């Protein structure tokens, strides 16, 4: 009976186990259908997307072809076209060439030109496809338009359409003032305008030092510069109100220039860009010059960027005697030599000396070269600079009215007062002294007490060589010994003291 009961109980429980198994299998199927399969599909889809992105990335990373352009663009009008000379390498390679036409007015038909190819030097550039105006106020007009396009941005490109005629005009940028006082007023207003102040604030945000002059240039000096440099044309002056941008290094300078070239966002126009940081200026001063047009005041303002190590601006410079180079420049800038050969030569070597000084300041000479110059330095106290004989018995009035005398006095005073301690300062002193010795005093004359003593020694040596009797006596000379202290017989200390050759002392 017990067995039957147990079997009855087992029969009643079996369906329950089956039901539970069905539920488990059912849930497992649901999990596979709704979880595993979608995940697998998503994974495959993701793999396909990654493969697609990879293919697109490979396409995006294809190397760009280098754009080759022949010729150089310079201030004024530049046109670009094709040369048709069969013997020209640029023509064979179908390379575009730039032709600079300078400032002025020109007109041409785009398919009928005869410009000189910079490669083969033949007038075989017969078609123009592009025009560039650089550092100029300009206008351009096509035969299919009524009004010319005018602009004064430093760099403007225009596509030249085939079959059309064009008129191009370009002139150097100029101020638009009615007089010097008007120019000064406009410049002062522009320097304090919101447009310029906002640009300055943006530069300072990049930790770049911007120095605004406390006042515009002295009027007397300004008039002298206008008369001397620009033949009295005040509208060629741009540095009445100049900002100096000082940077810690070349990268910061690049940043400053890049910010200034985006001046349009401050309602300013970059009208001229001159880079004398990588290529040498006439005086070898090293800077990047940007001229900004302020439309509100119809005036140009100059921004000059350089490195802190190169500036001679007082209060910011690390150069000893920073005024020296500028004062020297002021002396020789206005110099118009007479037709005398000696004065022409002095003017030329003065210009060369200024460039040598700036080569040191602006490091066109490397550290090793500057150190080599500095090693030859001897101070005024050591050698005793002699006054130029041409200044003897000359009054201040006579000196001021004679530029060679004025320069001689200036250089003499600088050499007597300047006592450099740093390497650059010593190198500058050596360059100035060699100029003074060779061209102010003259090679055959002593420029210092040390030179004078050397001349006496040379003269004495020559006299001895010419005196036969003395020469023979010197050949048999036995030096006598002497001392500069009391000699006591039998004193051992005598041996420890120095003795002297009577002939030498």
Automatic annotation (TrEMBL):
Regions that span the bilayer:
21-38
- Keywords noted in UniProt: Coiled coil, Membrane, Transmembrane, Transmembrane helix
Source organism's superkingdom?
A: Eukaryota
Q: Which residues form a coiled coil?
A: 40-67
Return the protein name.
Uncharacterized protein
The species this protein was found in = Reticulomyxa filosa
